[in-house]
Amino acid sequence: xxxxxxxxxxxxxxxxxxxxxxxxxxxxxxxxxxxxxxxxxxxxxxxxxxxxxxxxxxxxxxxxxxxxxxxxxxxxxxxxxxxxxxxxxxxxxxxxxxxxxxxxxxxxxxxxxxxxxxxxxxxxxxxxxxxxxxxxxxxxxxxxxxxxxxxxxxxxxxxxxxxxxxxxxxxxxxxxxxxxxxxxxxxxxxxxxxxxxxxxxxxxxxxxxxxxxxxxxxxxxxxxxxxxxxxxxxx
Length: 235
Hints:
The protein is an alpha+beta fold.
């Protein structure tokens, strides 16, 4: 008679693969939400992301400074000719923290970078290779990767721009010549009044004539004797 064994109900292991995939999906969605929120929420402080190649030099050694500057200029030409910035940063940059990342220094808060470097990254166009920038560390080639400006700094920039435009407008207004006065209508010449002869000077007063003696009547002619007839001639 065959032996019959009682079979106890053995619980089969649950399939956890679905739970693992569900966890991965939830994590992925959370990451997307975090990225979206970061893009939507403005930071309280302005930040900039840049990459650079540093050629360090000793400020007390002019010869070393000349060599460092020459190398930085050569690397800039090679980058403009098409060589990869990151590869040259790994090979030549004297900044050990960023050289391994292709020169990327990551996001840095405004005001935290050295003088010269700070001025460039906040004024240069994003993605443009800089000229050689000199700082107290040496010579840099810089590319601004990204720039995030806070609402506060953005408002300040607008105020500064408006103020500069106002000053520029006032300066232009002061420098511009005064508008020319339009010529007045020609005035027709008025006929001159007839010239009046100048009054002749008054004659000088003559002395009064001396009184003349009264005229005496002429004496009457004496009577002549009557004329005698002339005798006729004899025949």
